[in-house]
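README: folding subset

This subset contains proteins for which both the sequence and a predicted structure token string are available. Records are stored as plain text. Below is the entry for (S)-hydroxynitrile lyase (289 residues), shown exactly as it appears on disk.
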Amino acid sequence: MSLEKRYMLFISLICISFIFTANGTLSETPKSAPSKHFVLVHGACHGAWSWFKLVPLLKSSGHNVTALDLGASGVDPRQAMDLRSISDYFQPLRHFMASLPHHERVILVGHSYGGLAISQAMEYFPDKVSVAVFISALMPGPALNISTINQEIRRRAVPELDDKYTFANGTSNAPATFTFGPLELATKLYQLSSAEDLTLATMLMRPLPLFTEADISNELRLSKQNYSSVKRVFIVLEYDLIYQKDFQLWMIKKNPPNEVKLVLSDHMVIVSHTKMLLPHLLDVAKKYG
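--- output ---
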């Protein structure tokens, strides 16, 4: 068995019971219908597995939960180089949203880079989204495009540690993929997480395909009619060292949501401070769901 196949098998064994539980279509039919349906979308280099602590808490609170793998992420069988556009990366979420009954409305929750995916879903399926939650997530809008966001990220950039890039057409051209390095994970993403959670994340990282700004802009044409018709909540993470607090507040100022919440956490709040995050999500479900 090749190293690649062993790697995918390892991820599958770690995640399979979690994913079956997270996806309502694969789990046992509950005795009574859940009151709300949360759809969880992970960040860069992560997968549905990164929600493993939050899923059971939401389910035990009476809600239905679906955690998705985006393209070439988690246990998605495609490789990063198989994706030709960020549209391919977003595809699993689009397909899921399209499969929902016309009467069903979900709570979209995007973490970090996952904010881009849920933004497209808001534009394409506004009638199927009751509210979108951005957890320290990229939050473009009709008046805030990805080019402006990227410029601000570059302006605030700090030196990377051991992140890995691959190049399809030589190092003189733009990189094709990106992966967080172990030191970067420990220092900037999981600095308030347990050693066990950090170890798991380090083992399950997958490369993020990098797409051109033009490609992303083309896929994120967000309108007031669709995108802006969906209510939004932004959860600020106080000790985030990837998207630092002042950058989060900058996005909020440029693209004001309906509500802003604060959690005293590092970037990986969905792992390190799940029980602090949970009440905010339950409150969102009560107010907007």
